[in-house]
Design goal:
The protein has helices spanning 13-29, 48-53, 60-73, 144-150; strands at 39-46, 57-58, 78-81, 86-87, 93-103, 107-108, 113-114, 119-131, 134-142. The protein is α+β, with helices and mostly antiparallel strands. The protein has one domain (7-150): Nuclear Transport Factor 2, Chain: A. Strands 1, 2, 3, 4, 5, 8 and 9 form a seven-stranded mixed sheet that branches. A hairpin with a 2-residue loop joins strand 8 and strand 9 (134-142). It is globular and about 45 Å long.
Length: 163
């Protein structure tokens, strides 16, 4: 698709890096409402968790609720940036690589799974689209099944099945 030159928009790279640090800081502070100030009213969060569960995360409050859900399950979760960001030159989009570590010592609710206390260490990629000084869309990629194995929630399809 060819976009007329007058409609081409990019994201300022310094802004995007600072914005992403505020996203990481909101998560690491364990104050979910902090994300409301940095996403649009119609923000959409698309992740393996939302795709697997059918959970629609749309808007500032829903983004805050999603963060709350995650840190309730993983109360000592800490995110860190693991690589330089990547940028598109034709649209306001930036991608960030991360690593998350902690323990499943809380509760996944729903579906109501109590913590196992097991540690986890996983990584992924977040691709954000921006409108003005806020993110309007997030597409996250990570190994949800691998995380579930680490925390003892999923044993795998080859695990022994009781007869």
């Amino acid at each position: 698709m060819n976009v007329p030159e007058s409609q081409v928009s990019t994201v300022d790279r310094d802004f995007a890096v600072a914005w992403y640090q505020s996203w990481i800081d909101a998560w690491n502070s364990h104050e979910p409402d902090r994300v409301k100030a940095i996403v649009t009213d119609d923000f959409v969060l698309d992740s393996p968790t939302t795709r697997h569960t059918g959970w629609e995360v749309r808007g500032q409050q829903a983004a805050s609720d999603y963060v709350r859900y995650v840190i309730t399950a993983y109360p000592d979760l800490i995110w860190e940036v693991t690589a330089p960001p990547m940028f598109r030159d034709d649209i306001p989009r930036a991608a960030f690589s991360w690593r998350g570590t902690g323990h499943f010592s809380g509760r996944l609710d729903p579906p109501g799974i109590p913590g196992t206390g097991r540690p986890f260490d996983f990584s992924g990629l977040e691709v954000f689209d921006f409108r003005g000084d806020r993110a309007c869309y997030l597409n996250a990629s990570y190994d949800l099944l691998g995380l579930m194995r680490q925390i003892g929630v999923y044993r795998g399809a080859t695990a022994s099945v009781p007869r």
